[in-house]
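Dear colleague,

Thank you for sharing your sequence with our group. We've completed the structure prediction you requested, and as agreed, I am returning the results in plain text so they can be pasted directly into your records. Please verify that the sequence below matches your submission; if there's any discrepancy, let me know and we will rerun it promptly.
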Amino acid sequence: MSGPIVRIEGLAKRFGAVTAVDRVDLDIERGALFALLGGSGCGKTTLLRLLAGFETPDGGRVLIDGQDMTGVPPHLRPVNMMFQSYALFPHMSVADNVAYGLRREGGGGAETDRRVGEALDQVRLADFAKRRPAQLSGGQRQRVALARALIKRPKLLLLDEPLAALDRKLREGTRFELVRLQAELGLTFVMVTHDQEEAMSMASTLAVMDAGRIVQVGAPHDVYERPASRFVAGFIGLANILEAPGGRWVALRPEKIVLSAARPDLPHASAGKVVDIAYEGARSLCRVALDDGRTMLAATSDGAFRRGQDVWLGWAADAGHPLDE
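Please find the predicted structure tokens below.
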């Protein structure tokens, strides 16, 4: 079937006086690794639960693969969801955890065993089939939960903060594993996260949410380089928000600024003093108080700058991106 695998039309959900999802329209293409990104309380998890059928909308509708899901319960939707807690049964082996959904629906025997083996191979846990969850690392438990979600062969896999329970080092490696697996399977993944680095490094498409609404959708590079608003520019990465002539605003990323000891030969140049320096490995982020009273962030790979040093900031005429609001 052609067209997006998910189409959301005018979807709304309220909890008392609070509007969690506010008339959202959204298409999700087949085979995408789609990220819903936003801060706490923006509505992203509620939107995911509406897709799964765990919440009933107050308006609008969800279509999955062209079928209207209004009134369709979660277990009858072509969707599976991997929860943040993983929700593994501690008394069951890895293989039994993975098989649970199929067996609950009456499946069993050689076919179920074959599919369990196939799912464990996909997540590279075939040698751990007889272990219990307590005998696994956090990353391995995450992959067991993923195998259990995949075994039912959903058209859509929903992931609620899939890496939140892992430590930072393990998250970095697991990102690549999820991206690899999604690409190999060709499934559509819809992932909720508040972590912009996670969304930017994993997603093929992301949607930024604020106050229950989708405020921008696009490839991570496009959203970063061409934010639609001051909110998006400030939420995705770091940006200097500058007022331009005519009352408009411009987003200027720190890496687009030249930091130097002498005045740079660029269309825009301002003198100032380094107030703070944050060392980030390949670069340092400098906060500079300008002589005109503004404070700006500039990124540099030159480690020679020091707090209190007099410096110049310069940037090209096209370095800033004009914002719609």
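Summary note from our side: Residues 32 and 42 are 22 Å apart (CA to CA).

Kind regards,
the structure core
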